[in-house]
TrEMBL record:
It comes from Roseobacter cerasinus. This is Aspartate/glutamate racemase family protein. Gene3D superfamilies: 3.40.50.12500.
Amino acid sequence: MSVLSGGKTVYGATVGILMLETQFPRIPGDVGNATTWPFPVHYRVVSGATPDRVVLNDPTALRDAFVAEGQALVRMGCDGIVTNCGFLSLLQNDLAESLGVPVASSALMQIPMIAHTLPRGKKVGVLTVSKARLTPEHLEAAGVASEVPIVGTEGRRCFSQTFLADQTELDIDACRLDVLDSARELTQTHPDVAAIVLECTNMVPYAADIRRATGRPVYSIYTLVSWFQSALSPRRFPVDLDDPRTV
């Protein structure tokens, strides 16, 4: 007979996601659309953490609020915590030290690993919702030691305006064109960019389009959280002794 040990309130969802307080639509692929994930997740909204305060201002002013909601997710039963904004790399150390479980605050954290996969002379490039606000401090907090090519979606049709101004309507096709134009600018201006990281979690629905348009592999919060979750809940591989393909 198997004996189970308890200690959690909720089981089966190992990843907890700290969400900004927003009202814009979240389509499949977006972190905040639960159908995005092939595994169950928990959500907590950080009150007052608007895109304006997190991206256009200093998110460290919201440290206590993020820690409190992260602790609530851990108490609920989460074994690892992620966030839904790449700019929250500035809170990586605070969250990791305060929550007592693994934390992955930003898609930017993948850059050092991706760089190691590339041929010599090739670089990782970044697409962001705001190049003007993505500072060396954000990169350093994500473990990125050197400068990387960065292109933002500012000044285009609607992508940056929709998400930074927290608008209630989303023009999916226009946002797709904004992201694709930015991706093409990145690879044309920096032909040595051999892989792309999407800082902005709202860009994930367009990742396949970016891959098709640029020919580069595309990494995002989706790839980060999928990797993160696979370690928290490793897949079990059954062995059928009667099936010669498995032994």
